[in-house]
């Protein structure tokens, strides 16, 4: 599993996760489709799905455009407000993209429909990774737009804190989300 970290919008990120055997890929938080399409072409991969952490424009605004470019593209998320959503996921639901396994982790607080994505490959020496959207940052946690401190505490201690110790947190340096 290869992860391309793509800096966008001055203080935000998209992530292209590539299944190296099949050259198929999923993107987490497709905010800037033009930039993403350039990297998809450069990497020579086939985009199969979008995993959207939450509905805010700086994480999901590229969904509709990408769905037009790739009519078979699957768009996953936990909130009906996510554009081009094809699959509403639930807590602990597991998805599979080639050899890449994904566990959906419902982490409401920043938004009421926020989802983190825990990814790993079976029999791989690579550590698993968690894509935390605007729940967890290297320097703290996301702003409480639609939730409570109790929810965030549970997200950080019981959900993200329960992941395997070798999990790599693919978290931005600070909160880039500007809100709704």
UniProtKB/TrEMBL annotation:
SMART domains assigned to the protein according to its UniProt record, in alphabetical order: Lactamase_B
Names of the cofactor(s): Zn(2+)
Domain called Metallo-beta-lactamase: residue spans: 11-174
Entries under InterPro entries matching the protein: Clx_II_MBL, Metallo-B-lactamas, RibonucZ/Hydroxyglut_hydro
Domain of life: Eukaryota
Entry GO MF terms: hydroxyacylglutathione hydrolase activity; metal ion binding
Keywords associated with the record: Hydrolase, Metal-binding, Zinc
Protein family (similarity comment): Belongs to the metallo-beta-lactamase superfamily. Glyoxalase II family.
Protein name: Hydroxyacylglutathione hydrolase-like
Organism the protein comes from: Chelydra serpentina
